Amino acid sequence: MPKISEIEYFRVPPRWLYVKVTDVDGNYGWGEASLEGHTEAVEGALDEFKSRFIGWEANNIEHIWQSVWRMGFYRGGPVLQSALSGLDIALWDLKARRLNVPIYELLGGKVRDKVKVYAWIGGDRPDDVKQQALGRLAQGFKAVKMNATADIDWLDAPASLDSAVDRLATVKSLGMDAGVDFHGRIHKPMAKQLAKLLEEHRPMFIEEPLLSEHHEGIAELSQLTTIPIALGERLHSRWDVKKFLNPTIIDILQPDISHVGGISEIKKISAMCEAYDIAIAPHCPLGSIALAACLQIAASTPNHVIQEMSLGIHYNIESGEEDIGTYVHNPQVFDVCNGYVNVADGPGLGIEINENVVRKLSQKAKPWRSGSFVAYDGSLREW
After folding, report:
1. CATH 3.30.390.10 fits 4-101, yes or no
2. Cα angle 196-201-207, degrees, rounded to a multiple of 5
3. What sequence ranges are listed for the domain Mandelate racemase/muconate lactonizing enzyme C-terminal (predicted)?
4. 111-129 pLDDT, tens per residue?
5. 237-249: buried (b, 16+ CB within 10 Å) or exposed (e) per residue?
6. If DSSP states are collapsed to H, E and C, what string results for 276-289?
7. Is the pTM of this model over 0.90?
8. Quick check: bond before 347 cis, omega within 30?
9. What Cα–Cα distance (Å) separates residue 300 from each residue in 113, 174, 346?
10. CATH number of 105-347
11. Closest listed residue to residue 36, CA positions, set 1, 3, 90, 79
């Protein structure tokens, strides 16, 4: 069996970290280990993987995954799991490309031919939101996601919630579905009020209505609203997910394939959720490799319901011209038609990475830094 001969990583704009694994026969695969705001930490973990896994059998993906998880004593968390994600996705891509089949064929085959997708819109005022939503309609989207609020105090004026309701109503008036992302920045006194106010406009879901660390608060909120509750981007393994399943206090899980341990782990998490009648809608405001990997999961996962994609998201636009099509030779695989993306039937991830562009743009790429919110009184608020 082919052995791993090289593990490389490339920091590329706007804020992504790509991984390439090559075996002794020259076969290769690409993965994505992006962890927004913590690029250098993940790069350090990947340096460790270089020293550990060169010479290992590239086919033994599960054995390598288990070695990362179990043989380092300290396990899990966003940094190690993101590094593992990049390695794991690349190994799946390598194996499937060597066999000349899509990854979904190694995961049991297709359960669908196309995948429902949504994209992000911003804007603080209803008119701004309307224009952005119309732009997404023109791109082929039928569903979007938007922030619920800007920074907000622990206990703020009730009127601070009114704009969230107005913006959701605006998008719904266009005939689009919309998810509302609380982003974990709203605390329970305000989250309860906002969930109640949004109900009549029937959003697809409310995302991270509270931070996932407040398990008991989410359990309480789940009894107070009929809106589906979604979260998961800050959960990093099936063990993190367990407490939300029994008892069931969420409706949609949003694991991030670049933060949770890659294809191997997200497939297991999806099966766990199916047993509890919970849908999967992976978080993915990331790069082309992460999106392609998510689409392979979507193709082969019965309880997958919708896929986030970062086409034209503000992170990309603010950083320059780089977008999900920048680093691939076949960006048409991400074309949206009537709210769906077709399942790619090419080998591996279904995309062909433009390695020349990756290497060129990685030479001067700087690590992306998260923003921050500081209140009028100088205290910090959730970003």
Report:
1. yes
2. 65
3. 126-228
4. 999 999 999 998 767 778 8
5. bbebbeebbeeeb
6. CCCEECCECCCCHH
7. yes
8. no
9. 10, 32, 15
10. 3.20.20.120
11. 79
